[in-house]
Write a structure and sequence with these properties.
homodimer, alpha/beta, five-stranded mixed sheet, 15 helices, 12 strands, binds pyridoxal-5'-phosphate
């Protein structure tokens, strides 16, 4: 199979070296995947799993295929992929990718380097170091340390492991078998990664205690105090509080000042899961939502969510210098040799739970460097501006829509009430009926490919399925886009 | 700053949409980063950290920079990055990236999708599912399940968490506080991720017991049996054995058949860390090295190492269907709604410890699909062929080089003995002197940029610093490349 050996130093014609890379760039530009997708395109060309299998021959054979065929495979993959860059994609806590960030991502992929030593990643180790310093400064901390992790869930795990280690350094060596059960507290709106982490780290999900929230979804400091006291009464040992800055569904910001006061009083590590809401730190207008962040012990933040620096881009930061290293190092002598001829202070990979570590810092750095802080701030503000417009518009549309709560982050949660249900007695049956509205409209939007918005219930607050709209920085959402969302939901669901 | 807003639907001129992406492609092609780097180029243009800082202004400012400047930044980043694609880069257990795999990686970056639900990643969820089925077949298992993880360390953690859960499912809920200390066994040549994982998972590093190996670095089944008995005597509970298929330094393959027999007898989960050596499964000639893999419970394999499918690409596989889901699921109702209109069997993200998960399966799939199994096999065989040539050549060069042991994987470990040290009494002082040779030569090779090879001691085997040469599939290593390595080491070190 002469087409597939790739390394024939060709000139870029069919099958020659570089041909397929050019083809990908052409495809990305032709489909405007990152350079401004047209709102008139479909967000998704939906096929059920069994149908999609007919469009793409997934079988791996003994022999390969031609470069032409490879090109077609890539086109099919793009065609049937959800266009997260589409101005009408609001389905998750991320959207499209910024072009400059993508450039950084493509380059690091091509360089295929590993973030563990200066020896193999000189540029990227300096960059990671600098980005972390910069973020520590943005948080108003006088010093700190950090590491890029493959996603917010693992960043949150870093926080838990560090909190545990700080309290009982011997755990690293001997484990937690003879400890009293260690308990972490998070709000009942906190992300499930806290409870998954509790399971992995050997604490058990029962020891990730859910603390009650107010109507907005913010942790109640008084409820936290009670929960801590209760755990102590049960013979357990509280060690950490996870505050959430921007909850997944409601977008609530836990009150950091008050939680810090509780944690200081109780001697607990305060971690902030700012995976979603952390980008407010870039905005003079919205950073008050994280007031008190100067008093916390650690924080997780995902630039891959609101900011648009492509998955994966998540950073864990702690105010305690050297703790990451002490907690996680294993000093492998094949990798972190101390007899190197250069300053091994940048061989920081041993702070990580990973060994090989993808370069995630560079795309964020180049994105910040090229755009400058003022543009990032403007983008965060634009995401908030659009969400505030949406909120106003939901209210303006009277009995057709109903807001779940006043938004804090860029999440706007609301029900759509179809014509047949308006002005009726809101009996338990009425609510059961309403719970089916969002899934039905969702099916229609996906089948038609015009819009994607997530929906969710919140059992603990007895809220049935509602729409969760979220706006992110990329592409920049406008008030007109917001109006479209509501118009489209009305169009799709009016007859229900 | 008019240059940096990016989304102006331009035509690709300076600063217009797409301009920077074209620039990256041009840079990648011009430097032949993935299309066949010239051996006459430098592997690295070394600068010390403080010098490198002068070449790259790391400061993030209030205002951004022009696209021209952005282009220069990217060029500088490439210039000072280590060329892992260089035919003389043998510094780690990975090398360059295959062009087809890179194409897949670039496309998934541009699509910015998340491997958790079919809803947002229809193509990629099918692909991941199919790749896992395919790999389960290659292992000769009748059924199985798996997941792509951000690297082999985390893949190995999956194995430990699953092994623990299978034994004590209640741990998920209540933790390990009232367990007897749980013990995992790995060889004294096993990767440090087992001990880091033991720390994170609450077992403690002391409960990752190192089992003695033979001269080749293979775990001794008799020593394992003794270690298990000893742990039981100490009142601990053995639960898992980690066998290594291709150890990090020596490239040893633990004897899976014999270890499986021990584990079956003792009722222990057998995991195989095949992160490095797992690619032998693709070769009819070398897969015997993993004989017995049909009897194990789980395996980790990193296509990003020997195979050249760019970091990160690591897969965890287990023979126990449904266990990943039972062990890890949290059933978040905002993401894994059960009232969706399509078959949610492909919403497999809840098997993961992550929430957002980068699409790592697609680049591997497209790489396998386009090249076909026969080419992958030929590449693995070529990597082995080169390493066997190197081994012969080390021996042929008489008293100038000395082999540490006969290689099993593509690792070839050897000492270079400079002229001044040849034919001398091998006193303790002689060995101390020899321990400084590899670091000195390493400094010279990096300073001159002609070659990069790792070195390592092995304290437990009383082996002082030796060179660890490794060959991978990309770019294809040749016997001539191997001769160059030894010639160059002689040139750099003869006067020591
Ligand atoms: C044998 C072995 N297992 C596991 C790993 C860890 O893999 P990763 O670097 O992807 O975490 C390595 C890394 O070198 C290794 O050599
Ligand atoms: C508040 C919050 N924290 C953490 C996470 C987990 O981040 P990741 O998906 O990167 O693991 C999420 C994901 O949605 C989140 O919403």
């Amino acid at each position: 199979n002469g087409h597939s050996n790739g390394y024939s130093n060709g000139t870029g014609e069919d099958g020659g070296a570089g041909w397929l890379l050019r083809r990908v760039l052409d495809l990305v530009l032709k489909t405007k995947l990152v350079t401004g997708l047209d709102a008139s395109e479909k967000v998704v060309h939906f096929k059920h799993p069994h149908e999609l299998k007919d469009e793409l021959d997934l079988e791996v054979g003994e022999e390969g295929c031609s470069m032409e065929e490879a090109g077609r495979i890539l086109e099919t993959a793009v065609h049937y992929s959800v266009k997260t860059q589409h101005p009408h994609f609001y389905n998750q806590l991320y959207g499209g990718i910024d072009e400059v960030a993508l450039t950084g991502a493509w380059l690091t992929e091509a360089l295929n380097t590993n973030s563990y030593t200066f020896e193999v990643a000189p540029v990227f180790m300096l960059v990671e170091h600098r980005v972390i310093e910069h973020l520590v400064g943005l948080l108003g901390w006088s010093e700190g340390d950090g590491i890029f992790a493959p996603g917010g869930s693992i960043s949150n795990m870093y926080g838990m492991v560090l909190a545990r280690y700080r309290r009982h350094p011997n755990i690293k060596k001997t484990g937690i078998f003879d400890q009293k059960p260690l308990v972490v507290f998070t709000s009942d709106q906190g992300h499930y990664s806290i409870s998954k982490s509790a399971s992995w780290l050997g604490l058990g999900m029962d020891n990730a205690v859910a603390v009650a929230t107010d109507a907005q979804g913010r942790m109640l400091p008084a409820a936290l105090k009670e929960a801590v006291a209760k755990a102590r009464e049960e013979g357990k040992e509280p060690f950490m509080v996870n505050a959430t800055a921007g909850t997944t569904v409601l977008g609530a910001f836990d009150p950091l000042e008050e939680l810090a006061a509780v944690c200081e009083g109780e001697g607990l590590w305060l971690h902030v899961d700012a995976c979603w809401g952390g980008s407010v730190i870039l905005s003079r207008r919205y950073k008050h939502l994280m007031k008190g962040v100067d008093r916390v012990d650690s924080i997780s933040w995902n630039p891959h969510k609101m900011l648009g620096t492509s998955l994966q881009c998540s950073v864990f930061l702690t105010k305690h210098k050297d703790l990451l290293k002490k907690c996680n190092s294993a000093r492998a002598t094949y990798l972190f040799q101390q007899d190197k001829f250069y300053d091994v202070g940048y061989d920081t990979g041993d702070k990580s739970i990973q060994c090989g570590r993808k370069v995630d810092a560079f795309k964020l750095w180049v994105f910040m460097k090229v755009h400058g802080q003022s543009l990032l701030e403007a983008r965060v503000d634009a995401a908030f501006h659009a969400s505030r417009h949406l909120c106003t518009e939901v209210k303006r549309r009277g009995d057709r829509f109903r807001l779940v709560q006043e938004p804090e982050c860029t999440n706007v949660c609301f029900w759509f009430i179809p014509a047949s249900m308006r002005g009726k007695d809101e009996t338990p049956e009425w609510w059961v009926q309403l719970s089916k509205v969002a899934p039905s409209i969702k099916e229609r939007m996906v089948q038609q490919g015009t819009l994607m918005v997530g929906y969710s219930p919140i059992a603990v607050k007895k809220l049935v399925n509602f729409f969760r709209m979220v706006t992110t920085c990329t592409p920049t959402p406008t008030p007109a886009h917001m109006d479209f969302v509501l118009d489209e939901i009305e169009r799709l669901g009016e007859d229900l």
